[in-house]
Amino acid sequence: MSDLQGKICVVTGATAGIGLVSAQRLAQMGATVVVVSRNPRKCDEVVEAIRRQTGNSAVEAMPADLSSLNQVRAVARRFLDTYPRLDVLLNNAGAIFTSRQVSAEGIEMTWALNHLSYFLLTHLLMDALKAAPSARVINVSSDAHRIGTIAFDDVQFSRRRYSGFGAYSQSKLANVMHAYALARRLEGTSVTVNALHPGAVATNFGKNNGGLWGRLFELFSRFTLSPEEGAQTSIYLASSPEVAGVTGQYFYRCRPKPSSPASYDVQAQERLWELSVEMAGL
Q1: What is the model's pTM?
Q2: Helix axes 17-28 and 40-54, enclosed angle (nearest 10)
Q3: 168 tagged catalytic
Q4: Does CATH number 3.40.50.720 belong to domain 8-279?
Q5: Residue extents of the structural domains in the chain
């Protein structure tokens, strides 16, 4: 097990599933862990539980609804006011929405939470990442990105028929492309950026949808990996000396593997970057 004593880690979506397991394990390794999640009560409960289980008191809650760009900005400010640097940013928060919903700023919810929160939070914490001796940015994506396409003329499904899986796979492709475009921009710095597929994991994922969809996700979860198994690659990328200096890769089961052909399109990556800058109000 790697020693993360003295390292500062931020884990988003850390109150359930693989985010929770990742936060626990990083705390166990001695890291200072900042838990970012939507529900303040749940955040506090998880922080208390992790402190108790690991004996590590350096675990803190910073609640924020990351589907809101304003709350992403607020939590970034709070972090920067509290900590001198950031060693690991684990962008893990995400959800699937079977009906079209919009965020506080009126952005389609899947795109806002699954992609723009990664993009904006990473951007706002970049100086803190660069202040670390060697920092790591990790985007939790999914192999669902392989069937995704970025509909540049309508990423928000405002003009075409909404598809929950279409929106989800598009956002997961964006996670991989964001990692590649950012890794390219950070060449020669001490910050690495990688993306990963955790595997099909039995978590609360998808259960925010009621009715038949909720029951289908429930059924699906019986045939999947445990959150402990699913979190392995996130923990590996956050802590292993084996990946020190490794950047711009896509990982599954703690090994690099090729992502979809579409994800390597540099022109599309740059187009996505420009669109994200504009949508995040940067």
Answers
A1: 0.91
A2: 40
A3: yes
A4: yes
A5: 8-279
